[in-house]
């Protein structure tokens, strides 16, 4: 039923867009005039900016080929899938109020990614309530439309709750002033509940200072902090696709590696650092994340904490000379706009990811302690992975982006069922945004 309603809604939106092309100009009403824009989606709004409505979206079609550690038996596998098929609706009502609806139809669960109401009357502070995307880290702040690599760094797999938006609702405050941007929010988490059904809350904060923000030069620094309380016996696994999504889309042979796990009890915290510098067509950025979670002594058989660290470094260069755009509101990089409409913009990059989990890949099995996960070999109390990614992005125009990535990964003290501790992958993406 929901899909049917959206189909009708999309048809209506298309009709409006066609009519806007046929009858360019201002539509006069008995109130404020209405302006219709069709570049970058469909936007309808009053000229006094008291009301507006915008619909846009993205389609990302991916193909992956991978082998070695990326598969269970080490043999090459491949997968094609829609990474995202997303409809986004946003707007303003009565000047100070806003709303955002965001749903990914490419996801088999078809969950709402974002459902939020915003209050903008306390400028420069914005208050948001609902299902909101928390932000921890620079790459997570950047839209999936404009991240440089096809998939974000494996560093974020060390603490997936930091950027989870599907598990619960929350409240967030964010503000941008001068060279500063900051946001802090509290988010309820489904599954992390006490015996009475009370949800625990995660608190996530991010602060950015950008002393240089120009069209062709940006200097950016960021600090992130997150904390949550977990109930005794709460089981946590640290798994990673190592930046190849097809490993989980491929059910028969894909390997989403398990690097660690434990029963938790108490406080789970993470810190993050980020820095970036862009000058002309060249940019360099890096991030660091560390996590420490209190272990449950009753189930683990000891009081060892679950600890993990990760970092990434990325170099990018636009061969056609364009600079990456940057938005201080959000503390993030944005699209590259091609100057040559025929040639488009061409970008090459290299990224290095490094993750380490300091506990063995063990999960609790009751009062008797823990046992290794079936099919997984861990030789020490530390599991690690290193991934090199090189890639090229072609921004054909402001709507179409074609990407190709090659990834080479190696792991320490973890192997797949075939005994492989390295692997490689090729990832391709065709993207259209409106």
TrEMBL record:
Residues 1-24 form the signal peptide. SUPFAM superfamilies: Porins. Pfam families: Porin_O_P (PF07396). The keyword Signal applies. It comes from the Bacteria. Gene3D superfamilies: Porin. Keywords: Signal. The keyword Signal applies. This is Phosphate-selective porin OprO and OprP. The lineage of its organism: Bacteria, Pseudomonadati, Pseudomonadota, Gammaproteobacteria, Pseudomonadales.
């Amino acid at each position: 039923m929901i899909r049917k309603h959206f189909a009708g809604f999309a048809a209506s939106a298309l009709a409006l867009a066609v009519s806007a092309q046929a009858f360019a100009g201002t539509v006069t009403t008995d109130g404020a005039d209405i302006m219709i824009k069709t570049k970058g989606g469909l936007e309808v709004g009053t000229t006094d900016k008291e009301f507006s409505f915008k619909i846009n979206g993205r389609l990302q079609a991916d193909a992956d080929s991978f082998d070695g550690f990326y598969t269970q038996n080490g043999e090459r596998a491949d997968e094609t899938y829609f990474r995202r098929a997303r409809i986004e609706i946003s707007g303003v009502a009565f000047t100070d109020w806003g709303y955002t609806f965001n749903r990914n139809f490419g996801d088999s669960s078809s969950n709402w990614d974002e459902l939020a109401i915003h209050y903008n009357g306390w400028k420069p502070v914005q208050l948001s309530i609902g299902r909101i995307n928390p932000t921890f880290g620079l790459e997570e702040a950047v839209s999936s439309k404009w991240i440089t690599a096809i998939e974000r760094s494996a560093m974020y797999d060390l603490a997936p709750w930091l950027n989870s938006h599907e598990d619960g609702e929350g409240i967030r405050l964010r503000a941008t002033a001068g060279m500063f941007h900051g946001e802090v929010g509290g988010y309820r988490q489904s599954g992390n509940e006490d015996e009475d059904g009370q949800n625990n809350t995660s608190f996530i904060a991010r602060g950015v200072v950008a002393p240089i923000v120009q069209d062709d030069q940006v200097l950016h620094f960021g600090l992130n902090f997150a904390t949550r309380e977990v109930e005794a016996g709460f089981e946590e696994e640290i798994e990673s696709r190592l930046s190849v999504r097809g490993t989980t889309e491929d059910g028969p042979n894909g390997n989403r590696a398990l690097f660690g796990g434990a029963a938790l009890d108490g406080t789970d915290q993470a810190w993050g650092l980020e820095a970036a510098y862009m000058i002309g067509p060249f940019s360099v950025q890096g991030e660091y994340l560390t996590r420490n979670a209190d272990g449950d002594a009753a189930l683990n058989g000891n009081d060892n904490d679950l600890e993990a660290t990760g970092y990434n470094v990325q170099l990018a260069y636009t061969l056609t000379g364009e600079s990456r755009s940057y938005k201080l509101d959000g503390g993030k990089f944005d699209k590259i706009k091609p100057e040559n409409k025929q040639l488009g913009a061409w970008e090459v990059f290299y990224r290095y990811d490094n993750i380490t989990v300091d506990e063995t890949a063990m999960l609790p099995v009751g009062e008797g302690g823990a046992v290794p996960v079936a099919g997984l070999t861990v030789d020490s109390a530390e599991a690690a992975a290193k991934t090199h990614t090189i890639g090229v992005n072609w921004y054909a125009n402001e709507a179409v982006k074609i990407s190709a990535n090659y990834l080479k990964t190696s792991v320490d003290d973890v192997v797949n069922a075939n005994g492989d501790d390295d692997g490689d992958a090729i990832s391709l993406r065709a993207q259209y945004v409106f």
